[in-house]
Amino acid sequence: MTLTALRASAYLHHVAFESADPQKLAEYYGQTMQMEVEKISNSEWRCEGPDRRFVAVKGTNRQLAYAGLACRDQQGVDEILARAKAENIAIEKSPSPYFKDGAFAVRDPDGNLICFGLAIPQKDGFTGIHGPTQHLTFASLDVEGFTEFYHNKLGFALSDRVLHENGEMATCFTRSNHEHHTIACFKSDRQGVDHHSYEAGLWDNIRDWSDHYADLDIQLMWGPGRHGPGNNLFIFIEDPDKNWIEVSAELEIIHDRPVKDWPQDPRTLNRWGRAILRS
């Protein structure tokens, strides 16, 4: 199997969420994730910080509008496009404001809109604690269908699986670059986004983000902890629309190793303490 998305070195560049009150949501991200906020219209607000971007659009709370995965070069974009067409995946126009001409979008089996493109270079001058946009994790009734789409059809590499005792998949982690996961999926009783994550890089930055949240009187809803798959440190907070935000650090870098299967167990999800199991 050709790992087309992995070969393109695609990475999560930005996410866009629907909200009944996009201004409130954008202002929250501006303050909480240290981003500048720009009003585009009454129905769209954009937030941008150092290597992180968030878009809030008018709509239904807790719904992903789209996610943008940037590729290393236009050849990578074109190769994923050709792969999608060969797999008979419907091609849609990309709504992303952060990609150059030549971008496109596809919908996964749950209807999530995923854009691929070449990023417009970010302007200079953004400041804040280190934390680029890094991964997006979905909740789905059908993790196997998720794996079939991202791994078998788009060419994401499969990093790890979490399995129930009966062999059914509880979680799937896929990557499109050397970081352990770019897009993942939990089996759940609902469809949508489980969380999106920012990569702080170092434990000290987890501390700095936590202190920043404390200054804003925002309590951590989960963590600090360490995941099994990915081996990353983490903290979680919740935005006003109840979307989960993760700040992660020390995520595993994979160059060449086989897929690892993990048991569905609290210690798989959090080696240090309390786990929030989805299935």
Automatic annotation (TrEMBL):
Domain of life: Bacteria
Cross-referenced Pfam families: Glyoxalase
Domain VOC intervals: 11-119, 132-250
Database matches in InterPro entries: Glyas_Bleomycin-R_OHBP_Dase, Glyas_Fos-R_dOase_dom, VOC_core
Gene3D superfamilies: 2,3-Dihydroxybiphenyl 1,2-Dioxygenase, domain 1 (3.10.180.10)
Protein name: VOC domain-containing protein
Species of origin: OCS116 cluster bacterium
